[in-house]
From TrEMBL:
<feature type="transmembrane region" description="Helical">
    <location>
        <begin position="63"/>
        <end position="84"/>
    </location>
</feature>
<keyword id="KW-0472">Membrane</keyword>
<feature type="transmembrane region" description="Helical">
    <location>
        <begin position="130"/>
        <end position="150"/>
    </location>
</feature>
<dbReference type="InterPro" id="IPR010699">
    <property type="entry name" value="DUF1275"/>
</dbReference>
<feature type="transmembrane region" description="Helical">
    <location>
        <begin position="216"/>
        <end position="234"/>
    </location>
</feature>
<feature type="transmembrane region" description="Helical">
    <location>
        <begin position="191"/>
        <end position="210"/>
    </location>
</feature>
<dbReference type="Pfam" id="PF06912">
    <property type="entry name" value="DUF1275"/>
</dbReference>
<keyword id="KW-0812">Transmembrane</keyword>
<keyword id="KW-1133">Transmembrane helix</keyword>
<feature type="transmembrane region" description="Helical">
    <location>
        <begin position="39"/>
        <end position="57"/>
    </location>
</feature>
<protein>
    <recommendedName>
        <fullName>DUF1275 domain-containing protein</fullName>
    </recommendedName>
</protein>
<feature type="transmembrane region" description="Helical">
    <location>
        <begin position="15"/>
        <end position="34"/>
    </location>
</feature>
<feature type="transmembrane region" description="Helical">
    <location>
        <begin position="96"/>
        <end position="115"/>
    </location>
</feature>
Length: 247
């Protein structure tokens, strides 16, 4: 059987979509950490550590922000998991719906930030509403991409992908991409896209989005997620077999 199968073509399309979502996750964390009081809304591991520092009374880290982010992330993941499973059981468009919910939550967060703080950052004394909405959106994202299940591409963290990539290079140090099978190349592409996507998103968020202020930056990210959702919905309606989450 040839390596260049339709399944691999579908996987390549999924890798492309997951890469865009990974870049956006990096941008979300750049905006949240730099303009929302040093809290990660996508990287839950960072918030767990911040909360542990705060509870230990070290590092001048407030308890409320990481606790809010963790709670909202968990709530978003739980609700999305139930809703998307319900849609999937009925062969509904669960993937674009998941992205649409994420986009709506990000728009709400951006609008709230603009209403309360204008085009500036979210002050430390804020009531954490913006943090909660963005973390809720990222919890929805986590459940959405979990259902897609592209190995090595969770879109919200890169540690495992970096380790997988390093180990793969060490196992095959003399094998260039042209000497690999299509599956091997795709696996290395996934790991590289995840590590590079988070980094690129962080750079993008820092240089382009953070200067816009919290509200406008979140609206730009929401627009990108919404574009992916609409594209997924249109592809599904046209009967594209390579659509992410089709069926």
């Amino acid at each position: 059987m040839s390596d260049a199968s339709p399944v691999l073509a579908t996987d390549a399309r999924r890798v492309a979509v997951m890469t865009v979502l990974t870049v956006l996750a990096g941008a979300v964390d750049a905006v949240s950490f730099l303009t929302m009081g040093k809290v990660f809304c996508a990287l839950a591991t960072g918030n767990v550590l911040f909360l542990s520092f705060a509870l230990a009374g070290e590092g001048d880290v407030p308890v409320a922000r990481p606790a809010t982010a963790i709670g909202a992330f968990m709530a978003g993941a739980a609700v999305a998991g139930l809703v998307l499973q319900h849609l999937a059981d009925r062969r509904g468009p669960w993937f674009p719906v998941g992205l649409l919910c994420e986009a709506v939550l990000l728009v709400s967060a951006g609008a709230l930030a603009l209403a309360r703080n204008g085009t500036g950052a979210v002050p430390a004394a804020d009531d954490h509403g913006v943090v909660a909405l963005v973390a809720l959106a990222m919890g929805v994202r986590a459940s959405t991409v979990l259902r897609v299940h592209v190995p090595g591409m969770p879109t919200l963290l890169s540690q495992t992908a970096i380790a997988e990539l390093i180990n793969d290079v060490l196992r095959h140090p003399r094998v260039a991409l042209r000497g690999m099978t299509a599956k091997q190349r795709l696996a290395r592409m996934r790991w590289t896209a995840t590590a590079g996507g988070i980094f690129s998103g962080g750079v993008l968020g820092t240089l382009l989005l953070v200067p816009l202020g919290t509200g406008r930056a979140l609206l730009v990210i929401a627009a990108a997620v919404l574009l992916l959702a609409v594209t997924g919905m249109v592809t599904r309606r046209l009967g594209g077999t390579g659509a992410v989450g089709a069926g």
